[in-house]
Amino acid sequence: MASLGIETGADLAAKDIAFLREHFGSQADYLYRAARGIDLRRVKANRARKSVGAERTLEKDISSGPALREVLDRIVQLTWDRIERSEAQGRTVTLKLKHDDFSGLTRARTLDEPVRNGAMLAAVGHALLDEVLPLARPVRLVGLTLSHLDSEEAVSPPPAGRDAQLSLL
Q: pLDDT digit string (tens) for 76-120?
């Protein structure tokens, strides 16, 4: 692509379909659509949820522990509200931080039992934050996610009978 003068998405979007077909053959239509944000794949709206969380980009970058703990408290509340609405139960809590240079940092902890309430979620989230403080760079985004969700299929017994398919979960 570089030899054709295509080094960015904007460069790719500037090329017409005839040019792309000449140089990229069967991949041309895909490249043409991708550069324009067109995705023809079907949306799978009813797929199983894998996580529940919330994240917020901050108005200004933060590096102090007390300020980050305050932001995390707000994120915990947003996350717990979503967990309650979705009636999810999960065992893995993940803290996501994005620095001012857009580099990311995540920490996760998997518990032996599902997170039962907002206080438990907050305790795990704050413990994860404490592991990374003090930070080398300011943070512009804070997120918290609950995953390793318990599904009905995982806790339901397999069907009876000699042809029953056993779950690997």
A: 999 999 999 999 999 999 999 999 998 999 999 999 999 999 999
Tokens of 3: 């030899």
The domain spans of the chain are: 2-35, 51-150
The DSSP symbol for 136 reads S
- Smallest CA-to-CA distance from 142 within 69, 48, 46, 64 is with 69
Q: Is the dihedral of CA 87, 93, 97, 103 positive or negative?
A: negative
DSSP 134: S
Domain at 51-150: CATH code: 3.30.1490.100
Tokens of 91: 């065992």
Q: How far apart are CA 58 and CA 82, in angstroms?
A: 20
Backbone angles phi, psi at 22, to 5 degrees: -60, -40
| 123 Cβ contact partners less than 8 Å away, ≥ 6 residues apart | none
What's this model's pTM, rounded to 2 decimal places?
A: 0.66
